[in-house]
Amino acid sequence: MWRRSFSNGVSLTRTLKGKKWDALVIGGGHNGLIAAAYLARGGLSVAVLERRHVIGGAAVTEELIPGFKFSRCSYLQSLLRPSVIRELELKKHGLKLLKPIATSFTPCLDGLYLLLGFDDQQNNSEISKFSKRDADTYPRYENELSKFCKIMDFLLDSPPPEALHGDLSFHDLLRDKMQKSVFWARCLRHVLSLGQKDLVDFMDILLSPTTKILNKWFESDVLKATVAADAITGSMVSQIMIGDSGEVDGVLLVDGTRVHSSFVLSNATPYKTFMGLVPRDVLPDDFLRAIKYSDYHSGVTKINVAVDKLPQFHCFKSSQLEVGPHHTATVHIGCESMEEIGSACQDAWNGLPSRRPVMEMTIPSSLDKTISPPGKHVVSLFTQYTPYKPSDGSWEDPTYRESYGQKCFSLIDEYAPGFSSSVIGYDLLTPPDLEREFGLTGGNIFHGAMGLDSLFLMRPVKGWSGYRTPVRGLYLCGSGSHPGGGVMGAPGRNAAHVVLQDFKKQSR
Ligand SMILES: Cc1cc2nc3c(=O)[nH]c(=O)nc-3n(C[C@H](O)[C@H](O)[C@H](O)COP(=O)(O)OP(=O)(O)OC[C@H]3O[C@@H](n4cnc5c(N)ncnc54)[C@H](O)[C@@H]3O)c2cc1C
């Protein structure tokens, strides 16, 4: 439908309002699209309503500078659920995953570097440059993490066993009891398979601050900071129509078009959905307060840079033109010690953009030749920390914005001399830009903080983790719901399963 009608606004409006849709999805981020695909596969007629001119949300690719295609927000694909890839046959539809030669590269100002990858022996000799003890410990640390990931897999692919709301038949209650028993039994089986020692270690990793865990495992500053850098990572619809009986009746577009459906899924953030799209008087006070006071803080500024040559790191000499393994890895800049990360963070607590930002640099064109002109490259900089409202200036001021961009480029120059002069152009997205452009409340990259108090049965708020909302017929399907942010597709998939279940029940 999108393809057929996009070029012609009049026919798009006619198509949208000409029928009652089985389901509408507000927002064409990857979760909205995944939810729509599962619903369509389940036989429902579905329309996706996106406010931007392109779909993809925070996983979009846009050609902002001719010849340079930027993945403007998200920059690494490692989380997409295997279940989604398999069930939606994404590979058959063209999905191709590009594997880097190395995974992580941390250059140091003293001329050393740490390059980690897929080869255990090579990792050992790399870490040994900094600490022999850490080199021996590292495989055990990796093993422990992958053991715990297995438990998480089960939780990610399941809707949380949330309490049911509203009038329920005996049959509903019985089925719910059965489903919850199965869920908790499977959960228990996974947990018990660990044994007591692993269970305590798992709790330790889950609950302890990153610094405490890393200090326990490792002694080398560079390795700790490299591992820590991964752990610190932040047609417009105007209203959802509610019928007299308090149930969803569809969506009102800004041009006044009414699009009808009894099932609406929102891919927008919980804050945007409930504070912006739903009339306040249909929501319980305690629910509204919980949504309003959820944590949407963020300190991320993304800079997408077009350069005319590959960065040359002085600690890792390679040919000017050739892609080295380190160019395909995530490059950690300004990340040589935990103190460096700590002081970057402290600046933001004081209301200032970090004087020496912590950066993750990726060069996707080192693996994909189709996204930049020959010999030129796309460089993605995920930079931290930048307060939403800095106390020493404003992100609206072009000079202030530019000075932050230049600060990041100068810091890279310290490791890769000449980087600044290779810049052809760039796109800078501060927290307010991420909010304005992509609808990310507060600029939060995950649709809301992912602390332990906002996960699983508490996401988005306690009592409403099952994708259903206090408005009958309205569901959440984006990163603000379980299991959270990242290009995972799990919220979209899980939400679609819940909607299909309710749709079948209603059609009976
Ligand atoms: C800078 C940055 C870097 C990131 N890096 C990574 C990474 O490397 N790896 C990773 O896995 N994750 C990363 N993430 C997180 C990840 O990109 C997001 O968690 C994920 O893409 C969110 O997907 P979503 O479908 O839930 O929501 P979104 O992608 O936010 O989609 C929501 C959609 O709803 C639309 N919308 C909102 N309001 C309305 C409305 N009123 N009407 C119509 N449409 C509306 C928006 O325009 C948007 O298209 C990053 C995020 C950011 C911002």
Describe it for me?
- With 508 residues, this protein is α/β, with parallel strands linked by helices.
- Among the domains are: 2-59 and 235-295 and 449-507, FAD/NAD(P)-binding domain (3-Layer(bba) Sandwich), CATH 3.50.50; 131-219, no CATH class.
- Helix content is 38%, strand content 17%.
- It has 17 helices and 17 strands.
- It has a 7-stranded mixed β-sheet, with helices on both faces.
- Strand 2 (23-26), helix 3 (30-41) and strand 3 (46-49) form a beta-alpha-beta unit.
- The two termini are 28 Å apart.
- Residues 1-7 have low confidence and may be disordered.
- Bound molecules: flavin-adenine dinucleotide (FAD).
Helices and strands, with pairings:
Layout: H1 2-5, H2 9-17, E1 20-21, E2 23-26, H3 30-41, E3 46-49, E4 61-65, E5 68-71, H4 82-87, E6 102-107, E7 113-117, H5 120-128, H6 132-156, H7 170-192, H8 196-207, H9 210-217, H10 221-231, E8 237-242, E9 248-253, E10 258-261, E11 264-266, H11 270-277, H12 285-292, E12 300-307, H13 325-328, E13 330-333, H14 338-349, E14 358-362, E15 377-384, H15 398-415, E16 423-429, H16 431-438, E17 474-476, H17 490-507
Bound molecules: flavin-adenine dinucleotide (FAD).
The site of flavin-adenine dinucleotide (FAD) has 40 residues, from α3, α11, β12 and α16.
